[in-house]
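User: quick one - fold this with flavin-adenine dinucleotide bound?
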Amino acid sequence: MQQHQPHVAILGAGPVGLDAALACADAGWPFTVYEAADSAAAHVRDWGHVRLFTPWDLNVSRRMRAHLPHAPTGDACPTGDGLVDEVLSPLAQLPALKGRIRYRTPVAGVARAGLLKHEQIGTDTRAAAPFRLLLDAPDGEETAEASLVLDCTGTYSHPNTLGLGGIPAPGERALHSRITRTLPSVNGSFDRWAGTVLLVGAGKSAQTAARDLAALPGTRLEWVVRRPAPDWGAVPGDTLPGRQELVSTAQALASGAHRRVSVHTGAHVHSLSTVADGDRVLVRLATAYGPREVLADHVVSLTGYTGDHTLYRQLQVHECYATGAPMNLSAALLGAAGGDCLTQPATGIAQLRSPEPDFFVLGAKSHGRLNTFLLRTGYRQVDEIAAGYATVEDPRRLGGFVSRTEDPARGSSP
Ligand SMILES: Cc1cc2nc3c(=O)[nH]c(=O)nc-3n(C[C@H](O)[C@H](O)[C@H](O)COP(=O)(O)OP(=O)(O)OC[C@H]3O[C@@H](n4cnc5c(N)ncnc54)[C@H](O)[C@@H]3O)c2cc1C
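Assistant: Sure. Structure tokens for the protein plus flavin-adenine dinucleotide:
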């Protein structure tokens, strides 16, 4: 068996990556967190102006509280910035984590050293080979090894496109730089968002943007929604008031209650092109009432996010053909289809496992195209990993150092 230094590589210092780092620190496992941005929780910071609809008690894990006893508690819902400032940044500064996080170091790829994707399928040889990571470090490319890899890179930097059927609409790629694909902070930005805004999408991010844009006096909103009769994700008897409020606002806008807002349900973007003045985008819509054209000063596409699956294309990760989530987890989630994200079943380590030993996709990315992910779910996943590997008291036995038959955490993966 090849000898290598046992090490856990955590990809991404978002909330789930940080929670995983705490789990490693608690267990005494050597670990490194590789973070693309120059600070922790960069994705949450990107939508920091947005108020979460889940309260502090659901947003801060048990482990985080143990390390940060003064972390806020209770029913109030923080903004993304509040969560970063009061919990996630302070956690990243703790001695247990600080020197372990490598910022500005995106992971470009993960493989098994010496093995291609199709080689050593399900063998001990594969399990014993170290993972090899390619890093885009500040001073150039580097490689690193690991025996256990947790991909917590989230989804927010990989937005979906806006065309029919999920592929780009004609003209969309050429106008890429003109399309906003993250949740804009519009409050008070009268000039920035003056004129006509074309918004595509119907999920909670689009609902948030629609609510905020509708409040700007100099903005006309043309909102394109794919479903003919969207339910806006309404949950009967919703216990999360922030989410209920978004649904109610979307329903009111769709009912025509707002004179500066038109909601085109059962519609899609047919194509986009520039017009002679170069400042505006001509958007052709296919609507239930026939074709329509909108001259948009701004185009905002909030059609969801799916994460970078190319990172592990050389690994034997079995993804669901429908959701893109790891297969076992996807099957469990689809089995609970239709459920509210608050009532998603807790998954065990067996659901998190894929045929590639000791490689796990955790956090928002683990749900693929399903929009049922909550922070609480990610923290539970970390619990499962910590419990599954808890029998590995000697860190030298992490990953390929443990024979598959003697390690109960490996279970019966193929
Ligand atoms: C607008 C919005 C509102 C939300 N509101 C709620 C809510 O109210 N309640 C709730 O429970 N959930 C909410 N979510 C869903 C979910 O909890 C968040 O998306 C959360 O940030 C997911 O945490 P994560 O750690 O999985 O990933 P992320 O927070 O996305 O963190 C991933 C990290 O990985 C880094 N990274 C990315 N690629 C690489 C790479 N190749 N190498 C190294 N690092 C990389 C990123 O810079 C980032 O720091 C919301 C999501 C959005 C977008």
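One thing worth noting: The pocket of flavin-adenine dinucleotide is lined by residues 11-17, 34-37, 41-44, 47, 50, 52-54, 106-107, 152-154, 156-157, 183, 205, 363-364, 373-375, 378 (CB under 6 Å).
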